[in-house]
Amino acid sequence: MTTLWDLAIEQAGKDQDDGKNAEEKNLFIVGAKNSGKTSIILRFLERNEAPKPTVALEYTYARRSKGHNMAKDIGHIWELGGGTWLSKLMDIPLNADTLENGAVMICVDLSKPEEIWFTLESLLASSRARIEAAIADARQDNPGIREALQKRALARLGEDHADRNMLDPFPVPLVIVGTKYDLFQDMDSEKRKVICKTLRFVAHTNGAVLQFFSTKIEQLVQKARAVITNHLFGTTPSKVLQTEYNKPLMVPVGLDSLQAIGNVPLSDKDVGRVNARNPVDLWKHCFTSYFPQTNTDNPSKVEDPSKDPKYAEPAIDTLRAQKEEELERYRRQSERRSQKTRYDDVAA
Question: Of 14-23, 36-45, 201-210, 312-321, where does mean pLDDT reach its minimum?
Fold first, then answer.
């Protein structure tokens, strides 16, 4: 006969097993300055508060119950502020320990097409370079890490995908989010078409999810929340495909194709004149012809919070000013010593 004590012991064992199976995953969110990265995080966490500028690298987390006990999976969320110029801080969330349980989300502002290609090109390159360095570190303890990541990347595309041999899938799960769709939908239809086709090409060739987002459209908030939940907690990914450029794009990994995306929308003057070495260069030429790019990789464009009156701290600000004067004085003295040394060398 089974007693209540026996049942309690059995449940305790199950709880312990469930606790051992709890997982931790990481999501690293990067993108153009003021593209809405913080807004996406706040809406995912269901926090009703105004977003504040992200100064450097910020961290938060979410938990989700697993099983019938108190054990919870943890989703670590990292956000890089400052647009593209702080990419060196990728070393913190993208490392040997997070390669197998991490994902990257790149946000581009749909209302600023003059920044889209530069943002994507810069952040994709920086992320890939950082992941390559992390793979090199991880191979000391896990020699097969590169092959394992490649196998997973191809599996996300699908074993029988027609474009499989023409793509370069990102080593870890990748999401490209086009933000501020509410502003984008009022743009000229031909411009929207070029932007949508280009983003589909970039997402597809990198094996990424493509999702449009707006804080003002609840359906898109829910879709973005589902994408993040999938990557942090392993929920079933959406298979809804929406590629009509007059509607918000929703393109899961592996459901698009080069044939469906179609030809590069070259202007009449460029047909037969473009000398591109590969498809990426061709799409880049096309997109940047329509939308000449603005270099946003400029630290001077990032506001210094120490200059913001709402963060004023008289004692700290006075000390900071004193240290800055000392630093400037030291710099001038160093320059004078350097000049004197060069003069002495010439005189000798």
Answer: 14-23
Tokens of 241: 């495909």
C-alpha span between 116 and 84 (Å, rounded): 12
Report pLDDT digits (tens) over 94-129: 999 999 999 999 999 999 999 999 999 999 999 999
Q: pLDDT of 43-100, one tens digit each?
A: 999 988 888 877 788 999 999 887 665 678 999 999 998 666 666 788 888 999 999 9
| Amino acid code (one letter) for 33 | K
* Residue entry with tokens 């501020």: 180
The torsion region of residue 109 among left (phi > 0), alpha (psi -120 to 50) and beta comes to: beta
- Alpha-carbon distance 66 to 23, whole Å? 9
Taking alpha carbons only, the member of 151, 158, 90 closest to residue 124 is: 90
Place of tokens 């995912």: 44
Distance between first and last Cα of the chain: 103
Beta strands in 229-325 (DSSP E): 250-251
Burial label, 115 (beta-carbon count in 10 A; 0-12, 13-18, 19+): buried
| 218 alpha carbon, distance to own chain's centre | 22
| Contact between residue 168 and residue 202 where contact means Cβ atoms under 8 Å apart | no
Determine whether 293 is exposed, middle or buried from the number of CB atoms within 10 Å of its CB (0-12, 13-18, 19+).
middle
Distance CA 7, CA 5 (A): 5
Three-state DSSP class for 269? Answer: coil
Q: Are 181 and 220 in contact (CB under 8 A)?
A: yes
> Are the beta carbons of 69 and 19 closer than 8 angstroms?
yes
| Half-sphere exposure (Cβ direction) of 120: Cα atoms closer than 13 Å | 30
- Evaluate the CA torsion angle 150, 156, 161, 166 in order and state its sign: negative
Helix then strand then coil, % of the chain, to nearest 5: 50, 15, 35
Residues for the chain: how many in total?
348
Report how far apart, in Å, the C-alpha atoms of 149 and of each of 98, 143, 160, 169, 337 are: 12, 12, 18, 10, 53
